[in-house]
Amino acid sequence: GLQNPMVVAVLFMLVPIASLYFGRVYLYTYGAFLVTAIFGFYFAGQFGLGNVRPVDFDDSLVAAVALTVMVGVQDDAANRIRRLFENASRNASQLGERNEELTAIRENLERIVQARTADLERRSRYLEATAEIARDTNAILDTDDLLPRVVTLIAQKFGFYHVAIFLLDDEREYAVMRAASSVGGQQMIARNHRLAVGKQGIVGYVTGLGRPRITQKIDLDYVHTTAEELPDTQSEMALPLKAHGEIIGALDIQDTAEGAFRDEDITILQTLADQVALAVSNAAWSEQAPLAV
């Protein structure tokens, strides 16, 4: 039999270690080294080299074949283990990706629900404001009482920074601020703030052409004029007040946020502006009717 069993056993035990830790190249290199060592022992024993005792050729051949088979089996086992680790790593990565996708979907759904809830609340405020303004316009016939009520109601329901109503003067040359929800706006009324029709500011533009003008960022609109009493304005919307086909003024709304006005805001507020214009016209007619009699 092979006369160096401990040495061979140790060398054989190193095969799986080489396979698992160093990979295929090192495994086959180590296996070739061991086969070479086995036959080296055989020839050293045959020729009396060193202190190596002679070993039978059959034993050496069996050991070399066994080692070769072991290397092949170990390589296959190592490949299987590596594939298992790779699959486990890939599955863990895919699971992480799925979790991230689910988290993103959940967060997106939460944002959608929040946005829909905010839209519903906003529409509810629109309906409340519309109903209250409709009620007030039917009950209040004095323009001086009606206009402050309207601007305060719009500012409270929608949370705008500044809401004001301008009416044209008798000569239709200027739009005069008649009511304002903000302290700055009331200061402007006290100094008789007015804008030239068709010439000055967004309100002048609207009362001159009869078309709405919406500025989501005032720095980008050359028509906008800055008022020192309203230093925080970042966006502005002015809607024409029309009664019986005639422009009688404008509803001016300003906010501290850029891009504050949405399409549905514009639609609803234009409806409110039409209501206000009709109420102002009716109130003016009611005030003039006794004089005519």
Structural category is alpha+beta
What integer value in Å does the Rg equal?
45 Å
Shape annotation: rod-shaped
Sheet with the most strands: spatial strand order: 3-2-1-6-5-4
Oligomer: single chain
Number of helices: 6
Distance between the termini: 140 Å
| Percent of residues in helices | 55-70%
* Strand residues, percent: 5-15%
Uncertain ranges = none
Number of strands: 6
The mean pLDDT is 81
The biggest beta sheet is recorded as: 6 strands, antiparallel
Helix and strand pattern: HHHEEHEHEEEH
Report on this model:
This protein has about 290 residues and is of the alpha+beta class. The protein contains six helices and six strands, in the order αααββαβαβββα. A hairpin with a 5-residue loop joins β1 and β2. The N and C termini lie far apart (about 140 Å). The relative contact order is 0.08.
Topology:
Blueprint: H1 5-46, H2 57-139, H3 143-158, E1 162-168, E2 174-180, H4 183-190, E3 194-196, H5 201-209, E4 213-215, E5 235-243, E6 246-255, H6 263-292
For this entry, give a set of tags.
6-stranded antiparallel sheet; 293 residues; alpha+beta
Briefly say what this structure is:
By secondary structure, the chain is α+β, with helices and mostly antiparallel strands.
